[in-house]
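Continuing the batch. This is chain 6 of the set; chains 1 through 5 are on the previous pages. Same settings as before, nothing changed between runs. Recording input and output for traceability.
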Amino acid sequence: MIPCHACELNATRLQKPKDALQRETYGGPTRSPASPCHATEESLRTGKAPIQVNSLIERVKSAMVGLGTGWILVLMLVLSIISLAIMLERAWLFWSLRDDFEGLMRDLGQLLRGGDLEGARRRLEASRSAEAAVVVAGLVEADRGVDAAQEAMDGASALQRMKLERRLAFLGTLGNNAPFIGLLGTVIGIVAAFDELSKVKMAAAAASTQLAPEAVMARISEALVATAIGILIAIPAVAAYNAFQRVVRGTVANTEALGHMLLSHLKAIPSATGSSAAAAASTVDRLSGGASTAAHTAGESERN
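Output for chain 6:
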């Protein structure tokens, strides 16, 4: 009986070693289908993420679900207390520095026009406003010239502005970022809700299936509460920040008005002094000229 061609091929393959058969099957060196290198090539070829990345994501998700949104709510509660304290402190400061600015400007103008610098200084020191504190610094240096008074008022204005704007940056930062903190709590709540949904699919008992939707609703409600609290914290912080910044800008404008009034008076003093000195010099010249003429006449009469 003559063997067929297929039978001869099978016999040849049976006679070959195991390594040769694996090289023919997988087209490379000896490598089993279940080896790690083959698994890595399969994951790269199919586009699947490596197992390490999946495990990292699971760990992060477990940490987020384990922590929950409770710490987000506590953080926002602490930030809201700090924000309220800053609002009350700044409001008290601005209230304590208020004064009748129109009356102060009117009195200062009258005293300066009357040349009573000491009286103007006492009037400004009696005021508790930030504008008066700046102009007093210029009056102290008024005897050194206009430039010295200007520099003194610039320095005092910078100090007063820093005093007025203290802690306002916290309100601005909190107003801009509180919604994002609440959004973080929302994301954590949604992740926890999806985790509960996955437990629903894996549950087999009827009791577990009935309790799981309640847990999902609780997670979603926590997420919404976190967002609402973040918005409630941001709105008053932004409103207070804008209101306080408006007060600061008004104070700076009033300070510049008083400062310009003082500088205009100081710039007018040298010209008035110069004209008075010129008039006094001309009077002296006239008197000396008259005296010399009288002496010359007396001398002529004596010679005659």
